[in-house]
Amino acid sequence: MERYQRHVITHEGHPVAAPLADASVDAVLGAALAHVGGDGGRLLDLGCGEAAWPLRALAARPSARAVGVDVNGEALAAAARAAERAGVAGRLALHEGTVADYTADEPFDAVLCVGSTHAFGGLLAALTAARAHLAPGGCVVVGEGFWERPPTPAALAALDAAAEDYADLGNTVELVLTDGWAPVFGHTSSLAEWDDYEWRWTGNLTRWVLDHADHPGAAEALETATAHRAGWLGGYRGVLGFVTLVLRAAR
């Protein structure tokens, strides 16, 4: 199965491609744009995928404008269709390309990079890139993994990760502070949010297999769903956490 097709199937019905519930997404966006008067603001999403975050912001703020950047043209095409259906296409600009190479003529009130810091080479590099796009007094929204507890060999194997890929929550926040940022809001995904995300991921893919048993990719998809579920339940459940921080520049 092509990777993007799998992404579409596994994330169907979930608000964003990260372990946050609807109310959590709204809370983060509200905190990020609280400093913007009225119902406007300019938002940039680096690694936007299907632009779930910008689309939600535009729906809630009738005068806001947003830009989404991603390397995946199929995801951007889906975002464009969703924007048309939502009646916000005139306020959403989409750019296909590497997020690190994106340039803009104007700064943004909020810059998002949720679950996409790897595209820059890590958390601090992503924050450096976001800072270059930020208007004075603006906010960066960054979503990053962290270790809820020391990772076991099973967790590392399931995630294809190394222990040094993440810090614990305290040290993750300390990295941000040392880099000159002040957290003004944060959301630590709950175990229930993680479980909902993972059950949907594995369940959606399993359901697709059952409904498309004759598809040439069905066996591979079932193997993927089975391995992912085993890696989650037997490896990183309760070990890998996810925090979404709203940050303002402290210096």
TrEMBL record:
Spans through the membrane: none
Keyword Transferase: yes
Residues in Methyltransferase domain copies: 44-138
Keyword Transferase annotated: yes
SUPFAM superfamilies, alphabetized: S-adenosyl-L-methionine-dependent methyltransferases
Superkingdom of origin organism: Bacteria
One of the protein's GO biological processes: methylation
GO molecular function: methyltransferase activity
UniProt keyword annotations, A-Z: Methyltransferase, Transferase
Pfam families: Methyltransf_25
Protein name per UniProt: SAM-dependent methyltransferase
